[in-house]
Amino acid sequence: MHYTFQVVGWADIFTRKVYRDIIIDSFKYCKEQKQLKLYAYVIMSNHVHCIINTENNLSDIIRDFKKHTSKKILKEIENPQESRQEWLMMIFKYHAKFNKRNKDFQFWTQENHAVELSNNDMIDSRVNYIHQNPVKAEIVQNEYDYLYSSARNFAGLDNMIEIDEL
Q1: pLDDT, block means (10 residues), the chain with 166 residues
Q2: Does 18 fall in a domain?
Q3: Are 106 and 96 in contact (CB under 8 A)?
Q4: What is the CB neighbour count within 10 angstroms for residue 25?
Q5: CA 24 to CA 72: how far, in whole Å?
Q6: 104, 96 contact by CB (below 8 A)
Q7: DSSP 47
Q8: Number of domain units in the chain
Q9: Which of 44, 56, 62, 90 has its CA 20 to 30 A from that of 34?
């Protein structure tokens, strides 16, 4: 399955390494402890694309992943060195008003934008889409130059996290 996890208000939180690393560490944890299979990913400024699967309950893993990462990121925003602290917390507080489950702050949108991948052409198309995100955003010229993407794994380069074979 191809999932997109989007930050509320399209807030550009992942422009900072510390927040991208929380996502990577959480993927690692889910791979090691929850048997998540991570086949492809990219962390953009305000959303994460991934192709994932598991033999366990995937919706439970996604729920736990989003809950954990949102708590860790919100706690990290409290760091006095975060110059955007007030602005970011205002966005997350505003969006929590529209969700009965979040009384204080909401980091991720409720939807996961899931797309079922039923054949190899769809898989290849989605992997290409994921890896081309930083190129289309003009962050890098070549997809494998973006550190927070599995394009580096596919190119046989040093990477942030090991992925599973498709």
Answers
A1: 96 97 98 97 98 94 96 94 94 88 86 89 96 98 97 96 94
A2: yes
A3: yes
A4: 15
A5: 12
A6: yes
A7: E
A8: 1
A9: 44
What whole-number distance in Å separates Cα of residue 144 and Cα of residue 4? 20
The pLDDT of residue 101 is 72
**What single-letter DSSP state applies at residue 162?**
-
Token pair belonging to 35: 């048997």
Residue 45 in domain? yes
pTM of the model: 0.94
Cβ 7 vs Cβ 13: under 8 Å? yes
The residues that bridge with 3 in the sheet, in sequence order, are 50
The CATH number covering residue 140 comes to 3.30.70.1290
Pick from 49, 53, 54: nearest CA to 5: 49
The torsion defined by the Cα of 31, 130, 105 and 22, in degrees rounded to 10, comes to 40
The answer as to whether 16 is a domain residue is yes
